């Protein structure tokens, strides 16, 4: 992983030096860095890099690269709890794949992502919320969906970081989840994000 990061960053530096960062080659460098960031668990940055690569891979003619990057983006969005966005990226990838000759590796990847998305939806839809979140908790929940840190959320809401952590723990308990991504996914399934 460390070696992959070194190579991805070096590719970005070389491409920036020759003014090719916003090119098809730059898309490959962003895709590589996005995959490294996802493997490291830095999902917000991974999503940004992969979205950038997807934009650069977008073309008038369908390509395997375009389908592949959309599936990578769907996988990261799924891991972040952004299930609707993940499903949308998967659907767009399939539309591209329909225009291409059959490709076993892309089909396999698409099935894997579909499985991950189905599993995430199942987890997000499981159980009932016995005690609805308070208004303050819903406000924190809305910001948990963003890439903001606890400290930034606290600053935004004029609260202490401890108060934000307290609201977050209460949300996790009420939603029956253990992570921020699970909270966002579950809240999305329950329609709580529209209330926030």
Distance between the termini: 38 Å
Radius of gyration in whole Å, from Cα? 19 Å
Largest sheet: none
Helix residue percentage: over 70%
| Shape, per Cα inertia axes | globular
Q: What sequence of helices (H) and strands (E) makes up the elements?
A: HHHHHHHHHHH
Mean pLDDT: 90
Q: Strand content of the residues, in percent?
A: under 5%
Low-pLDDT sequence parts:
none
Number of helices: 11
Secondary-structure content class? mainly alpha
Number of strands: 0
Q: Topology, pairings included?
A:
Blueprint: H1 2-17, H2 24-40, H3 43-57, H4 64-79, H5 83-98, H6 104-125, H7 135-144, H8 150-157, H9 161-175, H10 180-190, H11 192-195
Helix pairs in contact: 1-2, 2-3, 3-4, 4-5, 4-6, 5-6, 6-10, 7-9, 8-9, 9-10
Commentary on this structure:
It is a single chain. With 196 residues, this protein is an all-alpha fold. It contains eleven helices and no strands. α3 runs antiparallel to α4, α6 crosses α10 and α8 crosses α9. The model has no long low-confidence stretch (mean pLDDT 90).
Protein traits:
11 helices; 196 residues; mainly alpha
Overview in brief:
The chain has eleven helices and no strands.
């Amino acid at each position: 992983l460390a070696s992959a990061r070194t190579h991805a960053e070096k590719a970005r530096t070389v491409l920036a030096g020759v003014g090719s960062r916003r090119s098809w080659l730059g898309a490959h460098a962003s895709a590589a860095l996005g995959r490294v960031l996802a493997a490291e668990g830095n999902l917000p940055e991974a999503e940004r890099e992969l979205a950038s690569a997807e934009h650069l891979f977008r073309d008038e003619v369908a390509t395997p690269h375009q389908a592949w990057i959309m599936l990578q983006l769907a996988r990261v969005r799924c891991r972040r709890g952004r299930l609707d966005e993940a499903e949308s990226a998967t659907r767009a990838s399939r539309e591209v794949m329909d225009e291409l000759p059959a490709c076993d590796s892309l089909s396999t990847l698409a099935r894997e992502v579909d499985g991950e998305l189905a599993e995430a939806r199942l987890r997000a839809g499981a159980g009932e919320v016995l005690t609805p979140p308070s208004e303050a908790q819903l406000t924190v929940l809305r910001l948990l969906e963003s890439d903001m840190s606890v400290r930034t959320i606290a600053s935004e809401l004029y609260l202490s970081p401890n108060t934000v952590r307290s609201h977050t723990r209460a949300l996790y308990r009420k939603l029956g989840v253990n992570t921020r991504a699970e909270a966002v996914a579950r809240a999305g399934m329950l329609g709580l994000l529209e209330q926030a």
